[in-house]
Design goal:
With about 140 residues, the protein is mainly alpha-helical. It has helices at about 5-30, 35-60, 70-100, 105-135. It is elongated, with a radius of gyration of 16 Å. Helix content is about 80%, strand content about 0%. Helix 1 packs antiparallel against helix 2 (about 35-60), helix 1 (about 5-30) runs antiparallel to helix 4 (about 105-135) and helix 3 (about 70-100) packs antiparallel against helix 4 (about 105-135). The protein has 4 helices and no strands.
Length: about 140
């Protein structure tokens, strides 16, 4: 795999994380704790793979300039800025949410997960949107 192929891989990993997170959330709402644990563990692995691939890509390639014109630039930069900010705070939130679960302190895990889940979902979904907007929808021919 070449470095220039990593953005597509990153978007795929983000999409997979979003599906796993949503599936894990549905499972816990249905009382399927084992399935919830398995899906959230997979979401962690997929997100860790994303972060590794993302860092490798940006070590080799500077940021991609958005090519869209007009009002879509406001939409793109609003999504990008909120995505970046929440991605930065997301990692410590995930750690703070997972550690109580590992210690079997489920009340604390559940309380933190109410904040972490929507942030993690937003970051995963907007990661895919940023990729599509930059590399496909508004890319130079």
């Amino acid at each position: 795999m070449e470095v220039y192929e990593l953005p597509a891989l990153n978007a795929t990993l983000n999409a997979a994380a979003a599906v796993l997170l949503l599936s894990g959330w549905i499972c816990i709402k249905l009382g399927k704790r084992s399935a919830h644990i398995a899906l959230m563990s997979l979401a962690l692995v997929v997100s860790a793979a994303f972060l590794t691939s993302y860092l490798i890509y940006h070590f080799h390639v500077p940021s991609m300039k958005f090519q869209g014109k007009g009002g879509i630039r406001w939409v793109y930069y609003t999504i990008l800025i909120t995505h970046v900010f929440l991605a930065i705070v997301n990692l410590p939130m995930i750690i703070l949410t997972v550690v109580p679960a590992l210690k079997r302190k489920f009340d604390k895990h559940k309380r933190l997960a109410r904040w972490t889940f929507p942030v993690w979902m937003y970051v995963s979904v907007t990661g895919v949107l940023v990729y599509l907007m930059c590399y496909h929808w508004y890319a130079l021919g």
